[in-house]
Amino acid sequence: MVAILTLLTDFGLQDAYVGMMKGAIARINPDSLVIDLSHNIPPQNIRAASFCLATAFPYFPADTVHLVVVDPGVGGTRKSVAIKFAQGYVVAPDNGLCSHLVQQYPVLAAVSLTNFKYWLTPSPSKTFHGRDIFAPVAAHLARGVAIQDLGETIAPPSLFTLPALDIVPTPTGLLGKIQYIDHFGNLVTNIPSDRVAGKVWYLKVAGKRISYRHTYSGVPAGQSIALIGSHNYIEIATNQGSAAQELGCTWGDSVEVTLV
After folding, report:
1. Is the pLDDT of residue 254 over 90?
2. Tens digits of per-residue pLDDT, 151-177?
3. How many angstroms separate the CA atoms of 84 and 1, rounded?
4. Is the pLDDT of residue 243 over 70?
5. With bands split at pLDDT 50, 70 and 90, how would you rate the model's confidence at 1?
6. pLDDT tens digits, 79-122
7. Alpha-carbon gap, residue 110 to 82, rounded angstroms
8. Half-sphere exposure of 132 toward its Cβ, with a 13 Å CA cutoff?
9. How open is the CA angle 225-223-177, to the nearest 5 degrees?
10. What is the 3-state secondary structure (H, E, C) of the chain?
11. How far, in whole angstroms, is CA 255 from its chain's centroid?
12. Phi and psi at residue 229, in whole multiples of 5°?
């Protein structure tokens, strides 16, 4: 079976960075099926990448290797890691990119990528570990190299995780935050759908009351609605428009769900 290797970065497509990573992979494992999750993560936005990784993760075969490079600390003191889950592997800087995953799935093994035998060069660039360390390591892992061979074993609890965006109960419902904004300007909150299942509710954000509907077309064009997104979080959208622009909201803004 051909190993699958996914790529998730904030590199964009204007430059050759993504292509160089794919070239490093092809030199080591040309038979890998490389799938681009996204290269349009907002620059240095680790939370956005963590969300995208977690929402894509369950849709791939269990032996998939997920290569994630959103790395504002490249060349610094943060570790480079490979992590094994029952559902697949992640190769990434240890800066919180796996925060969502480690909250949802048990970590079976984790290593610091200290074995330069599996790097592209023992003297990697200080600014492009994606090409010189992460891509070659992911290629070797997808080719069948054991995770334990890639470096020193580390304790899963030592992996860095971002502080959680709390969901706070209120007398009338729940207070949460916007954790992700997609290409369409939809505002994805951190409130999962099971917190409102079977209940009547509406949402307040940016001083406006937003009613719940089942689909984007449940309101006229240009009107904002609350709904359950495909990721099973409460989402705010504007029919045929951008909720982020319409409501003037951004990452981390507060949202309030009121149960009726």
Report:
1. yes
2. 999 999 999 999 999 999 999 999 999
3. 19
4. yes
5. low
6. 999 999 999 999 999 999 999 999 999 999 999 999 999 999 99
7. 6
8. 13
9. 40
10. CCCEEEEEECCCCCCCHHHHHHHHHHHHCCCCEEEEEECCCCCCCHHHHHHHHHHHHHHCCCCCEEEEECCCCCCCCCCEEEEEECCEEEEEECCCCCHHHHHHCCEEEEEECCCHHHCCCCCCCCCCHHHHHHHHHHHHHHHCCCHHHHCEECCHHHCCCCCCCCCEEECCEEEEEEEEECCCCCEEEEEEHHHCCCCCEEEEECCEEEEECCCHHHCCCCCEEEEECCCCEEEEEECCECHHHHHCCCCCCEEEEEEC
11. 21
12. -80, 175
211 touches 226 (CB < 8 A): yes
Cα–Cα nearest to 235, from 260, 203, 194:
203
Q: Which residue in 117, 115, 131 sits closest to 81, CA to CA?
A: 115
Half-sphere exposure (CA, 13 Å, Cβ side) for 14? 3
- Output the CA torsion 126→160→57→10 (10° steps): -40
